[in-house]
Amino acid sequence: MHLIIAEKHIAAKRIANILSPKKLKKVRVSGVDTYEFGSEEDKKVFIGLSGHIVKLDFPKAYNNWQKVESKDLIDAEIVTASTQVKIVSALKKLGKQATKVTIATDYDREGELIGVEALDILKNVNSEIEFDRVHYSAITPKEIEQAFGNPTKIDFNLADAGHSRQVIDLVWGASLTRFISLAAGRLGNMFLSVGRVQSPTLALIVEREKERDVFIPKPYWELSANLRTGKGEEFKVEHKTKRFWKKEEVDEILKKIGDTATVSSVNTSTKTDKPPTPFNTTEFISAASSIGFTAANAMRIAESLYMNGFISYPRTDNTVYPESIDLRAQIEVFSKGPFKEYAKKLLQKKELKPTRGKKETTDHPPIYPASLAKKSELNEQEWKVYELVVRRFFATFAEPAQWQTIRARFDIDSEEFKANGARLIVPGWRWYYHYNAPEDRLLPELKEGEKLEVLDKIIEDKETKPPGRYGQGRLIRIMEELGLGTKATRHEIISKLYSRAYIHGNPLQPTKTAYAVVEALEKFAPTISKHDMTSKLEADMDRIAEGQIPEDEVLNESREMLFSIFEELEENKDNVSEALRAGLREDKIIGNCPNCGSNLMVMRSRKGSRFIGCEGYPDCNFALPLPRGGKIIVTDKTCEDHDLYHVTIINSGKRPWKLGCPHCNFEEWQKAQEEEKKNNNGKIKPKKITDISGIGKVTAGKLEDAGVSEVDDLIEVDAFELAKTTNIPVKKIRNWQDAIA
DNA sequence: GCAAGGTC
């Protein structure tokens, strides 16, 4: 039997379909769907993996953060564990029957490694197995037939290169994460993470915020005037000096200029504006981000559109359509349905010549619409993303847009003013892709020497602004430029920074904890705080892949470097600890106590619950409550009434909860309680049964066994009956009932 | 409870 292994289930199925002369047979092996065809002696079986099916980790003995020295992780043993148990056991079962295996995973470094991971499992159960490798960049009949007609060898060096990355990421990430967390005294789910990709990314955000911190706005003035033509058309002109740094200068000019302007020159020309290039993941996220999607949302929706067959694979670096895709046929798909007028217009062209982006890779085609969706099949958000992909696809075949531009100059008492106009004369690709279109700036028809009336003169007070915070789309672009992360992980890295409470808001704003971690790393472990670590790793991986250097040599060098970093860190442990704790403390300051003026801080009670307390305790006992779960982020927004910082709560898997001013929040809660008392005979009905005083977990269990699991159940139940079945005294039950209703 | 990389 010949076993063919693809990187994902859907790829296995589609490849099998292309290669099979007849209908495929679906066979379930260890709970995994496989596809087969051919006679018993000449059978081909196709199975899809789920990306990596094994992961690297340290042995269990290293699990205790406090008992194991962080440094010991550097040269600790590394074990592999399967993460996809069903697929691994299916591989073992099939491996025993197979005489030959073809690795058909994605055509990139991780694909090679994923293939070798599967092969290792097969070799373990069948040392005789023969193997080869096929390469394809798109799952089209042409490419698949070509690939399987010309199998090649597995590139073990390339897989080793990928493996070295896994080891280095684990060793550096885990050891430094533990060291920093221990030094800061932040354990449990509050740990402070460090990694080759996340830390340099965080450093970018912190660096930008620091530029903003030190920025001093500089005042300047702008001078403009409104003019009117003889026909009564009005428009605005600006002084040729864009920014006046001295108020006196503008005042001077203002005094000098009168009520008549003369057109001194009019220049018209045309400007062409090239169609956009095909979407790869970064360009897609960036475009989706500009129409209001977060990176993570854009990718989540793209993933679901892909799984339902509406768009092609969304994780790709490629910006050039491979020749194997029949682009005309792909446009024809849309000659009915909501995009038909666009498709028909494109299909009129004799030759379809798409634009090409700078990046051409072998992994997958650029993102394009794979099938026609009906609006009713998708929700509003999905439709928006789908439409974006469809329109972008069309735009890559369209003609350039053309603008007519006008540059006019005016003279008002020897002072030069200007106005620029632009009008779209040939929409070209902008007809298909209407996003972020600049508006026409229209000017009336003007002739040189024409006299115009000056209606009013305007001086505007302005000041220079600090560089803006990064939006998600922008950050993902920068990450790509610096080589940080991959198409499939960049948005996840950003989500990780949010969930670790390193950043908040959009555009992205770092917490003081982030400052402290980045500063500590820059000082004592600079390697991991810079994107160069990735560049160096990439270069080393290239050398491993080309066979110039063995993997072990790269790993040894990396471990040595990390050991010397740890020497530095351990020598300065107290410094690191102090600096981190100072940053952490700053993130807990809510504002000043209204009673005594001391700091109000996020604190933890002896029982472990959190609250906002006054540092003047015990002289001052002002306090405010905080929600039980989630990470607390103190933002830089302040409440106008209480002058306290707004608070946001982050729970994993949920949207951030903007609680706002904790004082206002508490007052609202009190009001709601009063309201409820009024409506409920002076009593407050608890939400959960365990909120009733006298009912703990054990009693709640007994009540639940008797069918009483909600507060309302307890109110309605007959106390005598409940007492009989639960052995709880009637009096107790009556007391609870009285207390709540 | 640690990373980053696949995929669901």
UniProtKB/TrEMBL annotation:
One GO molecular-function annotation for this sequence?
A: zinc ion binding
Q: What SMART domains does this protein map onto?
A: TOP1Ac, TOP1Bc, TOPRIM
Catalytic residues identified in the record: Y313
Region Interaction with DNA: which residues?
A: 193-198
Which GO BP terms apply? Answer: DNA recombination; DNA repair; DNA topological change
The UniProt keyword set, sorted, is: DNA-binding, Isomerase, Magnesium, Metal-binding, Repeat, Topoisomerase, Zinc, Zinc-finger
Q: Does the keyword DNA-binding apply?
A: yes
The UniProt subunit note reads as follows: Monomer.
NCBIfam families from the UniProt entry = PRK07220.1, topA_arch
User: What is the protein's given name?
Assistant: DNA topoisomerase 1
Origin organism is Methanolobus zinderi
Q: Which gene encodes it?
A: topA
